[in-house]
Design brief:
There is one protein chain. This protein has 69 residues and is of the alpha+beta class. The protein has one domain (3-53). 54% of the residues lie in helices and 13% in strands. The chain has a two-stranded antiparallel sheet. It is elongated. It starts with 6 loop residues before the first strand and ends with a helix.
Length: 69
């Protein structure tokens, strides 16, 4: 994402105190933070890698049936 779309908010001394970013960039940042948090746990890291490498695909109906909903 281009830095030109990021807006900096300055205080009366000209110091950057806040940043306004496009929502898509914010969601990307939040997603990366969540992933980093989850990867701190060896158990979660293993689960995420297993899910990432999973080849099995289920349709919505099959998932609902399996969950009983």
């Amino acid at each position: 994402m281009s830095q030109a779309k990021i807006k900096y908010v300055l205080n009366e001394k000209g110091q950057t105190v806040e940043v306004i970013v496009p929502i898509d960039l914010w969601r990307e940042i939040e997603s990366e933070r969540e992933t980093a948090y989850l990867l701190q746990s060896e158990t979660m890291k293993r689960r995420l890698m297993t899910a990432k490498n999973r080849q099995e695909v289920m349709g919505l109906e099959e998932v609902c049936e399996k969950l009983g909903i």
